[in-house]
Amino acid sequence: MSQPRQSRALVIVNTNFCNSNSDVVFGTRKGAKREVEKLSNILSRLNYKVKLMHNKTAKEIEDLYQQERCCEHGEYFVSIISSHGHEGVIFGCDSEPIKLTWIFQILSSEKCPVLTKIPKIFFIQACRGSEFDQGVECDSGEREPECKPDCFSDYLSIPPQTAVMFACSPGYVAFLNIFGSMFLQALLKVLEGEERHLALNRLMTRINWEVAFCCQARGTYEGCKEMPCFVTNLLQEVFPFSA
Per the database record, which ranges form the Caspase family p10 domain (predicted)? Predict the structure, then answer.
């Protein structure tokens, strides 16, 4: 009897950023490389065939997702992107932006029929703005930061059979230090524990709780928080990490 195909995972981490003149544009993302390597190892143990890519340009990132359209896939496709970003975009190592909606659409059923029935799950570790989350009090009367009028357009552009989890809320920064990021460290903890057997929406809610209640910035940004969020267009409950 033939063995079932392995699910696939594409992990992209950018740590160094220069422009076309080789000038450094963004700060080095210390701590990012080690945590995605740990995540890649965990996904391998959970029966994923993992492709881990370091420091890719915007065009190279697009090409990597185009290549996935030609691959044989198992039950799920998982992708983790760790980079600098802003609302709706992540940056390649050449400091050029690429729209997340474009990445999602590359693997949509319209452009990639072979992946029509396969759940596609994205974890995005990147800033979505420049605001710092000071945490929320239940009786707070402070005005929330203004978001762009079309801040929900990215959500509406996520194709069916796709789930996306962001490290932070729209307009806010995502924290990273030499030990890693709040968001991907929480994902690591969940995948290493019994929570990995949960349905995806419950697993993501658990990550939300872990970051919101157990993580807090130190040093220059002492006391600042982070609130991940996710959106899903999946049509059924899925258990992608219950190997």
Answer: 180-242
* CA nearest neighbour of 169 among 224, 213, 132: 132
Domain assignment present for residue 130? The answer is yes
- 166 forms beta bridges with 124, 229
Alpha helices in the chain (DSSP H): 32-45, 58-68, 100-106, 153-156, 182-192, 200-214
Cα distances from 236 to residues 7, 57, 162, 163, in angstroms, run: 18, 34, 11, 11
Chain centroid, CA 165 distance in Å: 6
Q: What is the CA 118 to chain-centroid distance, rounded?
A: 18
**What is the total count of domains within the chain?**
1
The three-state DSSP-derived secondary structure of 17-34 is: CECCCCCECCCCCCCHHH
- pLDDT digits 0-9 by tens, 128-158: 987 876 655 433 334 444 444 455 555 557 8
| Rg for the chain, CA atoms, rounded | 17
Q: Report percent pLDDT > 70 for the chain.
A: 82
Position 46 scores a pLDDT of: 95
Q: What is the CATH number of the domain that holds 175?
A: 3.40.50.1460
Domain hosting residue 205, numbered range: 8-135+152-233
Residue 78 has pLDDT above 90, yes or no: yes
- CA 215 to CA 227: how far, in whole Å? 10
pLDDT, residue 116, reads: 85
Give the relative orientation of helices 182-192 and 32-45 as an angle to the nearest 10 degrees.
Answer: 20
- Round to whole Å and give the CA distance between 20 and 106: 26
| Rounded Cα distance, 227 and 172, in Å | 9
